[in-house]
Each structure stands twice: as structure tokens, then as C-alpha cells.
Design brief:
single chain; two-stranded antiparallel sheet; four-stranded antiparallel beta sheet; 17% helix; alpha+beta
Length: 138
């Protein structure tokens, strides 16, 4: 189950990354980061153009703003207009979540049948949701 721990740590790292936008920009109450609407970001190169990051975190790391259990999966998250879009699989159903970026509260979710397909890993969605305008693609 070491692999699960690594995936959990990766998801927590992503949450920390979103939190870093708030911490790095002066401890704002709400994250002031640019949108990241698809895998590898707005320019499809994995490079953020944000500046002013504060790398002087406490020894325990940045404060966790929120956590969310998504189910099994290996997809990254997308962020657009104050919302986080993420996926997971619970009981052979893929679920797309729309969460408030500041609080982690669920705004909506869409579920559809999809077997776990445990072939090369534990299964679940592997594709990052993509936001274009008011549409979300998975």
C-alpha cells in the first residue's frame, strides 16, 4: 500500500500548492492564484507565471486549508474562477467534483458508471478535467 501513500501525498501536495498561492502572496483569506484550467496549466507547459511566492514556510509546512476524499484515481486537479475540479472512482462510478477553491465545499458532482480497471495501478480516472468557458471536459 506504499503506492496509495504516495498518491495521497501527491494529492496533499497539490492542495498545499493551491494553499501556497494564498500563503506566498501574503496570507490572504482567499487564494489569489491564476487559473490552472487543464493538465500542465494554461499554456500546456507545466510552468506557472506567478511571482512573489514565499518559500519561507514553517517547518511543518504550509497550513492545510482543506482536504477532500475523492475516491480512487490518479488525475490531477484543475482550477478556474474560484473552483477546483477533481475526479475519483467510488464503487465502480467515476465522479467529477466541483469544489469551492477557498473552502473545499462541494458545489456539485457528476457520477457515471465506470469500472475501476485495475491493470497497471489501482484504477480510477487518470485524466485531469479540462475547463473551457463554462464547460468541463473529462
Amino acid at each position: 500500500m506504499e503506492f496509495r501513500r504516495v498518491v495521497k501525498d501527491y494529492v496533499l501536495m497539490l492542495v498545499f500548492s493551491f494553499a501556497a498561492g494564498a500563503i506566498g502572496l501574503g496570507y490572504f483569506a482567499t487564494a489569489q492564484a491564476a487559473d490552472w484550467p487543464n493538465w500542465r496549466g494554461p499554456n500546456h507547459n507545466g510552468i506557472s507565471k506567478e511571482t512573489g511566492w514565499n518559500a519561507d514556510w514553517p517547518e511543518a509546512g504550509p497550513k492545510v486549508l482543506w482536504e477532500k476524499t475523492l475516491g480512487t484515481g490518479f488525475a490531477s486537479m484543475s482550477v478556474s474562477k474560484g473552483r477546483v475540479y477533481a475526479m475519483g472512482n467510488i464503487k465502480d462510478n467515476d465522479i467529477l467534483y466541483c469544489l469551492d477553491a477557498d473552502t473545499g465545499k462541494e458545489i456539485w458532482k457528476k457520477s457515471y458508471p465506470c469500472p475501476l480497471f485495475k491493470k497497471n495501478h489501482e484504477g480510477g480516472p487518470c485524466a485531469t478535467p479540462t475547463i473551457s468557458g463554462d464547460s468541463v471536459y473529462t
